[in-house]
Amino acid sequence: KVLILSDCLSAINSLEMKQGDLVSEEIIGCKNALNSSACSITIGWIRGHDDNTGNEFAESLAKDRARRGTPVS
């Protein structure tokens, strides 16, 4: 089982509605492929800026990469 949490509700909604840009379509395709295998993926929302250790760490990594000009993939 894999649980992916994000504080970006609009991104989660675009994935759940299966609408959006090419990146959303690629993510949906990967999620569907993994779900049809032995892996189960759930994507959920988490409140941002709420002292959640994992979310704060992910945000600090993203900010660091943005300053360096290195994309986070």
Automatic annotation (TrEMBL):
InterPro entries to which the protein is assigned, alphabetical: RNaseH-like_sf, RNaseH_sf
Protein origin, superkingdom: Eukaryota
A GO term, aspect molecular function: nucleic acid binding
SUPFAM superfamilies reported in the protein's UniProt record: Ribonuclease H-like
Protein name (database record): RNase H type-1 domain-containing protein
